[in-house]
Each structure stands twice: as C-alpha cells, then as structure tokens.
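To assess whether ligand presence alters the predicted conformation, the chain was also submitted together with adenosine-5'-diphosphate. Input:
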Amino acid sequence: MHLKDSALLRTHAYIDGAWSEAADGARFDVTNPADGSVLASVPDMGRAETRRAIEAAAAALPAWQARTAKERAAVLRKWFELILAHQEDFAVLMSAEQGKPLAEARGEVAYGASFIEWFAEEGKRIYGDVIPAHGADKRIVVLKQPIGVVAAITPWNFPVAMITRKAGPALAAGCTMVLKPAEDTPLCALALAELGARAGLPQGVLNIVTTMQAAEVGGELTANPLVRKLSFTGSTGVGKLLMRQSADTVKKVSLELGGNAPFIVFDDADLDAAVAGAMASKYRNAGQTCVCANRLLVQDGIYDAFAAKLAEAVSKLKVGPGLSGDTQLGPLINEDAVAKVETLLADALDKGAKLVCGGKRHAQGPNFFEPTIVTGVTPAMRVAREEIFGPVAPLFRFHTEEDAIRMANDTEFGLAAYFYARDIARVWRVAERLEYGIVGINEGIISTEVAPFGGIKESGIGREGSRYGIDDFVEIKYLCLGGI
Ligand code: ADP
C-alpha cells in the first residue's frame, strides 16, 4: 500500500487533539481482507480512554457551539476539500483495509465527503420559529440548539461515508463527537481525523477511540451522562443492545440497522434496466451493504428471462483484490462473513433451490466468494429472513402484485426496497404499500447526501443526509416571554 501523503496513515487514536496510545500500550492489527497481510496496528483502548475522550468532547463543546454556524461551516468546507484532494490516498487505504474495488472506493470517498459539504451548508439553516402566542401579553419563540456530546459507532462496510454522515451534521450543528470506528477499518477514520485537524477542527471536537473491545467502549459511551446522543450504524442485535443501554441515561438515539431488501421485477419491467439495477444493488461492495438486494422477487412471466440475463451479466464480473485496477468484486471482510454466506446458501440448496452460477469459495483466496445466483427460492429458506451480506442473489417467484407486496413486507426489517415496473398506476400503488424507509423505483442505487436515508420497523430510527439529517443533532427549546 503506497500513499502519496504518508501522514494519512495514522496508527494512534485521536483524543483531545493528540495522537494517543492505549494506557496499557495494547494494540491490534489491521489486515487486508484480500490476502490477510498486516497493514498497521492501532491502539486497543478501553473504558478509561473512552471516558477521557468524552470529557475532551464535553470540554470542547462550549467554544465550538459558541462559534457562528458560518464559522463552523468554513472549517467543514475546508475538511471536505481536503478529503477530495486526497481522494486517491483514501481510496487506496479503504481498498486495503476493507477490500472493495478501487473504483468503488473512489466513489465512496466522494460520497463520504459530500456529507461534510452538504451539512456545512445546512448548518447555516437551522432555523427556529416564532409562534403566534396564546395570550396578548406573551410571545413564543422556538430555538434549535446542539444536543451536546455525540457518541458515534460505525461499521466496516463504508469506512468513510458512515462516519461523515454522522460527523457532518453533528459538527455543523455545534455538537462535539467521540467516534468508535469498526475494528476492521480504523485507518480511514484516523485519516479523516488527520484531515479534520488540518482543516482547523479545534482540539476535542472530534475524538477517535480505536478498540477491539467494542462492548467495553460501547458500555462507556452509552452509560456516560455527558454523552447526550448515540448515533449507531451496524447490526440489529447490537443496535437493540445499545438502545437498551442508552435507556438509563435517556439518550437520544439514531439507529441505522440491518435490512432485508426486496428487489421486485414485475412483468412490465424494462428487463435490461432491471438486470442493471440488480447488478448494482446486489453485487456492489460484494453484497456487503445494508441496502443490498437480499431477495429478488420476480414475476412469473419474465422469471426465466431475468434469471438468464442476470447470469450473463454476473459471468462477466471480474473478481479479485480491490487494489487491482480492474476488479469489480472484491473479497468479503473476513472468514466469518464467508462462512455465513456458505451456510445460508447450503440451507437454500438443501431445501430445493437450484444453483444457476457460482456457489462456492473463489480461487482468489479464503475470503473470496463466487458471485452466485440461485432460483426456486422459497420463504421457508433462511435467505428469506436473514441478511446475506455477500454476493448471492436468491430469486423468488411470484404471481400477482398482491403476492409481491405481501412477500416484500413479510419481514421485521424496513430499510430499502426496489421495484421495476412501467405501469404508472402500479408504480404508485406499490410505492405506497411497501413498508420501507427508502424505495428505489426503476433504480438500483439510492444513496445520495441530498435524500433522507434510514429505515422503519427494526431497521432503525432517524434519518441521515438531506435537510432532515440535522434534526437528530439538535434539541428544540421553546421560550415563552410573558408580561409584554
Ligand atoms: P457488523 O455485522 O457490521 O460487524 P456490528 O453491529 O457487529 O455489525 O458492528 C458495527 C459496529 O458496532 C462496529 O463498530 C462494532 O465494533 C460495534 N459493536 C459491536 N458490538 C458492540 C457492542 N457490544 N457495543 C458497542 N459497539 C459494538
């Protein structure tokens, strides 16, 4: 791994404006999932260091929130520009520690940076209200103020964007932050902190605690009363645990959890567009996104044609290490992820699904899995209920629009759904009845900083991005002026 700016490879945590070691000097290795090679080691911190980071964030809060929104925006704008100026280095770092192809990594850096730009602008528009009062001698004013110290816990699948989606609005609103990045991908987080410091983020405004002891650090972040808000992206199980832990101090929580995205193709769909959408939605990041199509529901009339065209497109995918220039499908994050994909696929095949292509580990190495398609999948199979998080596309068959909607909604999750159809009345009907926070209609890629991203049901609470994304980081205060 070669970086043009070698100072972006930071191997210390970042607390109170200083690059820091764990109190006991403990460290853990960060590896490349494509070949298992060790890229660097970072501090393995615990409760005491987390407390110190929280206290630093609390100490930095008054001065940061006292700045004007425009002053904060200027620092964030600089940060955004620096991230883009180092896009290539970030892409290399990301591809090395996370595994995604370089082209996708470059895309994520731009996407991740866009949240900083967007919220630098939005921060200037956190308007309050003047409400016509309930008495002639009174006046009512509504203020929006930063919620305070924010704890953020992020996953490994988008090592930059999942951080900037939280840090952008939090810092723009005048909050300060303690971030615990995923143990698999701390290097991108530390590089962000390095550029944040260069952009002029004051000491203590953004703190990064690296750790393998997620439960310890998460325990402190949720128990500490100085933390007023928790923003988490990750699995539903951990999200529920953190929500429970946050109850004792009644923290505001935002959760972006698992999904079980249906991808519905109706008989009247544009078949080529549907295949292109399915490829993007299913195989991006090797299937490791929470909005990846998890169940492809295809109507009788075009089921066989869709399966054949999808198989043809899949056969052209170039599998390899993310850092090789022409790779389209990289490794999974680790062995456990590969084992889970294998188990889910074996369950489907045992229960009668048919393999169209792929189906086993890829010759590239132990963390690689062949892009796979299975047909004849039914609701009795585990893939109908569980998030695959790998490059396996299970094709379910349905008969009527009613069947498709029932199958699509038959899950406790509600993050993203997709459907392809051309009949305009059907488009409206289906869009309104899908119980999901995000619906892609004739579109397989739905992520953008300008739109609200988030789920319903057990997929989460709150929205990230768009003008709604800043709401989670402010409190509403109502002033009642009497005696006028
Ligand atoms: P994934 O399947 O994406 O690894 P996780 O929910 O396990 O999902 O991980 C998302 C983030 O949550 C990571 O930063 C991970 O370290 C963190 N995490 C995992 N377990 C806990 C926990 N008990 N407390 C706090 N954070 C946790």
